[in-house]
Amino acid sequence: MRRFGVAGIALAAVVAMGAGKQGSARPVEHTLRLVKTIDLPGPAGKRFDYLIVDLESHLLFSSHLGAGVINVIDTRTDRVIKTIPDTPGVEGVMPAPDLDKLYASDWFENKIAVVDLHTLRVIKKILTAAKPDGIAYAAPFHKIYVSDERGRVEAVIDARRDVQIKMIHFPSETGMPQYDPVARKVYVNLEDTNRFAVIDPATDTVAAEYLVGRCQGNHGMALDPEHHRAFLSCEENHLMTVFDLDRHVPIAYLPEARGADVVQFDAGLGRIYVACYSGAISAFREETPDRYRKIEDFPVPYAVHSIAIDPATHRVYAPEQQLDGKPASKLAIYEAVTAAASD
Q1: Do 145 and 158 contact (CB within 8 A), yes or no?
Q2: Which of 106, 145, 175, 314 is least crowded, fewest Cβ atoms below 10 Å from its Cβ?
């Protein structure tokens, strides 16, 4: 993920256009409530990166890039149960539960680390291109897709044999990839050209590329596979863009706080969250597949740019490298505030 400077946070709730129709203004809702902060091992003030919840094991894997480790947290007890070393420059993390493996992109070595989920140890490293970053897993195909950001490729890994089988080249740095289990396609942001690429995992060929409209610097991505929507964070002009995967066009643009990076979608609540480096989680609501509105810029510490959601509990996890202006190494745990809970 890229690092951006800060300018300020847009704190007003904004009603956005969905499918070209203007909504009406609504009162600001509160979306999250801090319930706990836990200490993470490792040096304070060092950059964190991606994190992800594995529902099968009830484990949260959090990459601590600056420390070169992956912290493993039990989401049932909120305790760190393991710190996995030998992952210098770790960015993306992605479990493959059916294969009992975890894959981690290792920027400093330009390799993909393979972790045994039973022992929580690195068992192999796979050479890739330059600056491996986000990772997607196409489970039916047993393939891992890694965006080698500066290498301008999507690396394809056979997850059964743990060997690289293809490099898909693009004329752009590659942003976050996602696997769509409904369409059975892999999507990749092409952030230099403001395009959205579609890869067929059956052949590992590029099936199509589409422009993303007013979105500039599309890097982060989340999916709503049921309703055929992709949510893109546009880092250069601070927009969360909703992309229609059937019509291949953007249908809504909503303002984000500055420094937008990782996007997460909570299908159960119909919420989209975007972690923004400037000190906010921008929260949006999917009212219908064609209508979206911004809820708020929920304030968090500066430099929080990556989040994960547990879809079973609706908890949001955010690693913190600064707290009250001082170096930190913590994990904040937030509960979702719903209309029923706030009545």
Answers
A1: no
A2: 314
